[in-house]
Every structure is written in structure tokens, then in C-alpha cells.
Write a structure and sequence with these properties.
By secondary structure, the protein is α+β, with helices and mostly antiparallel strands. 24% of the residues lie in helices and 31% in strands. The chain has 2 helices and 8 strands. It has an 8-stranded mixed barrel with strand order 1-2-3-4-7-8-6-5.
């Protein structure tokens, strides 16, 4: 019985070690992508948004700032696992800031979007891209089923920023729901 307990303890310890290595690796990838995003923004010439922006999956495209919870995160194109290891993913089927429609950004609840549930109505969310800096204010939140894709739809001519992550936040394993934040433009960038 003592050998079984020791074996189980070692297996459990190896799982914890593996999870720690994965978390550290993801954090390093996120940090590298953020440095790259800042270089892109520093070298860009801010003009009116082009009518057609195009990025490759996994490409770093900007920076997401959520001051209320102290987050500064790289935005990458796409929402596949490889993209989400580097930061917040932009859902390719939606537009970019300044294009007067829906922008959907997704991220993991246990890495980039920890603390997202602390946001309140009116809190600012800033998206910086090569074509400008765009500030949104939280309008509402919702919890939807994990398979619910009804949140992805055109909002034209109104611009709406949607942040999406798994829910509940402290759930172990694949969470069954999604936590959604709806934010509208603040100020005038029209």
C-alpha cells in the first residue's frame, strides 16, 4: 500500500511539474509577442484605418490594455491553440477597430484573461494597432453556453468590442460556459 501511495504521489507531482513548465512556456511566448507588438506599434505611421486589413494566423497585430485589472497583452491573429499561447486571439471572421462592426477577442481564463470578471460597466479597454489607438467602455457582461456562437454576428454600423473566455473562472478542466464582455467605443475616433 505504501508503494502505491508513493507512485501516486510521484505521478501527481509530475503532473504539477508539467503544468508549471507549460504555464512558464506560455508566459514567455506571451512576453515575446508583447515585445514584438510594441515594436510594430512604434514603427507604424498612424493614419485612418485602411478599409481592408489582412493578417496571417498567429501574426502579432496589436496590444490590448485593460487598466482596471493591470493587463497589457499582445493581440495575435486567430484563436487556435498556437495563437492563444502567445496572447489574446482576434477572431478572423470579425473586423478590426475603426471598421464599424463587431471585433471579437478571445483568451484563456487562466492566463491572459485572469481577473476579467472584475470589470464593471464603464471600465476602459484599449486596443492599439498600427492604424491607431481605440478606447472602449464596458457596457455589459453575459454568461453563455460553451457552444453558443450566437454572440458572433454583425453589429454594423455600430462598432462593438467583444471579449470572450471560458467560464467559470476557477473551473478545473474544460469549462462548460463562456464569459462575455460587451464594450462600446468611448470618445470620438470616427
Amino acid at each position: 500500500m505504501k508503494k502505491v501511495a508513493i507512485i501516486l504521489f510521484l505521478v501527481g507531482l509530475s503532473f504539477v511539474f508539467y503544468a508549471g513548465v507549460q504555464l512558464k512556456s506560455n508566459k514567455q511566448s506571451e512576453k515575446t509577442a508583447l515585445v514584438h507588438a510594441h515594436k510594430i506599434l512604434e514603427s507604424s505611421d498612424i493614419t485612418k484605418p485602411p478599409s481592408h486589413l489582412s493578417f496571417q494566423s498567429g501574426q502579432t497585430i496589436g496590444v490590448l490594455q485593460i487598466p482596471t485589472i493591470g493587463k497589457e497583452l499582445p493581440i495575435v491573429e486567430g484563436i487556435d491553440e498556437d495563437a492563444l499561447k502567445n496572447g489574446v486571439g482576434h477572431y478572423t471572421g470579425t473586423v478590426y477597430p475603426g471598421q464599424k462592426d463587431q471585433i471579437l477577442l478571445s483568451g484563456h481564463r487562466d492566463t491572459v484573461f485572469t481577473g476579467l470578471d472584475k470589470l464593471k460597466t464603464g471600465d476602459p479597454i484599449i486596443v492599439e494597432m498600427q492604424h491607431g489607438s481605440f478606447t472602449y467602455g464596458v457596457k455589459d457582461t453575459a454568461i453563455v453556453d460553451g457552444n453558443d456562437t450566437s454572440i458572433i454576428h454583425s453589429t454594423a454600423p455600430n462598432e462593438m468590442l467583444i471579449l470572450s473566455t471560458c467560464y467559470p473562472f476557477r473551473y478545473i478542466g474544460n469549462a462548460p460556459q463562456r464569459f462575455i464582455i460587451y464594450a462600446e467605443p468611448m470618445g470620438d475616433f470616427e
